[in-house]
Amino acid sequence: MSEALSKYLEAGRIAVKLKEEAKKIAKINVLLVDICERLEFLAFELGAKPAFPVNIGVNEITAHFTSPANDVRKIPENSIVKFDIGVHIEGYIADTAMTLSFNQDYQDLIISAQDALQNGINAMKPGVKVSHVGAIIEKAITRFGYRPIRNLMGHRIERFNLHTGKSIPNISGIEGGTIEEGEIYAVEPFSTLQDAAGMVRDSNETVIFRYHKDRRLKSQDAMALLEYIKKEHRFLPFASRWLRSKFSYPSFDNIFEQLIKSRCIIPYRVLVEASGLPVSQAEHTVIVEKDGCRIIT
Q: Do 53 and 99 belong to one domain?
């Protein structure tokens, strides 16, 4: 077994343990920030690092949300909650997601995304077009009477790079190349109600960021913060919450804003279903092998 494969597999095993822990601790009225921090700490305990902040998407919140510092939001009653978890070992990333329902009405919505995920993965092997996989995912979701989120996709993964090159669409009709042996993909169908818009839009909230480029900054504190981000996270997403626990600058907010305005770091806007209706998600990371895919999460 190659060193890279060994580290991918270990990252996958740890990601699965984080999902299992999320199932245990996610309860109605539990603080979202407590869940995020517990799972991120567990990644370190188990010998990995977070590849991105733990994402928790309640109801229509679909992607790019993690609790900021001192967040008071909790899991609400009658909700559907997505947990998107990524860990890495020396840059070798495993990315996985699941949805929990605190409302029995959403159980089939969850199953539709899970079924689409398995059907999509079953179709993946060298030489298959990603558009073919997208068509299979869409068919699986619509068979349950739901609709896919058309402007979110799965993504190819490389070392220290979460989104690179080809994507795996969740609908038919999107061309994007051919799957090749040895590639790593995160496959992630999103399913929503039939009368929903079936797409996500940007919200005004930003709580996750990534390093973008170097620039000369007037503030030495800002330079020190940027150097830390580059060294610790490279191009992987990080939470502002993580930095607040490391840097006790009295003017942290102003310094962080300098990095954003100078585009040394760039934000990810929290994505929500455009019509405000609930969304489910299922995701695995897979390694494309000669005759199919190996699921590592």
A: yes
216: Cβ contacts below 8 Å, ≥ 6 apart: none
Same domain, 228 and 243: yes
Q: How far is CA 83 from CA 10, 154, 255, 259, in A?
A: 20, 15, 30, 28
CA distance 208 to 197: 25
**Do 154 and 291 fall within a single domain?**
yes
Active-site annotation holds for 95: yes
Range of the domain at 236: 207-270
- In sign, the C-alpha dihedral spanning 101, 16, 39, 251 is negative
Q: From the candidates 10, 21, 60, 283, give the one annotated as an active-site residue.
A: 283
The reported pTM is 0.95
Q: Are 80 and 101 in contact (CB under 8 A)?
A: yes
Q: What is the pLDDT of residues 193-213, one digit of tens each?
A: 999 999 999 999 999 999 999
CA angle 261/262/267 to nearest 5° reads: 55
Length of the chain equals 297
User: Which residue out of 71, 108, 132, 163 is catalytically annotated?
Assistant: 163
Q: Are residues 233 and 174 in the same domain?
A: no
84 a catalytic residue: yes
Known catalytic membership, residue 105: no
CB proximity list for 126: less than 8 A, separation 6 or greater? 179, 180, 181, 288, 290
Condensed to tens digits (0 to 9), the pLDDT of residues 157-180 reads 999 999 988 999 999 988 879 999
Please report, as a single letter, which amino acid is at residue 243. Answer: L
Rounded to the nearest 5°, which phi and psi values hold at 57? -115, 105
